[in-house]
Amino acid sequence: MNTQFKKGALSLCVLTILSRRDCYGYELVQIISGNIEVAEGTIYPLLRRLSAEGYLEAYFIESAGGPPRKYYRLTENGQRYRDKLASEWKGFTEGVSRILEAPANENSKGEMKP
């Protein structure tokens, strides 16, 4: 998949998953990579950036089989940002779909070409 497509969508994916439940980093990687081809090394810098911007907060939970796991949860600002991104994504993908599905003799607004 085109890396530019992924780059634009990964923040929305991470924020959406965390709007449903708290997750640790590797768990997010597994969920996302089950749907989108993504390298593990792509998610961790994104988590750091979203945390630094105040959209996520992190906390640790002891793990039975190893060191404590760092979990992430969405902040109120993160929820607002997720909602904004989701709205923008919906409008963007609907517009792209209209263009892709338009008959050859129509332009993107559904008007007949000259």
Describe what this molecule looks like in 3D.
- By secondary structure, the protein is α+β, with helices and mostly antiparallel strands.
- The chain has a single domain, classed as Winged helix-like DNA-binding domain superfamily/Winged helix DNA-binding domain (Arc Repressor Mutant, subunit A, Orthogonal Bundle), CATH 1.10.10.10.
- Helix content is 58%, strand content 17%.
- The protein contains four helices and three strands, in the order H-E-H-H-E-E-H.
- The protein has a three-stranded antiparallel beta sheet.
- Strand 2 and strand 3 form a beta hairpin.
- Helix 1 crosses helix 4 and helix 2 crosses helix 3.
- The longest helix is centred in the C-terminal third of the chain and has 26 residues.
- 16% of the residues are buried.
- The mean pLDDT is 89.
Terminal CA distance: 35 Å
CATH architecture: Orthogonal Bundle
Global Rg: 18 Å
Helix content: 55-70%
Defining traits:
114 residues, Arc Repressor Mutant, subunit A, single chain, alpha+beta
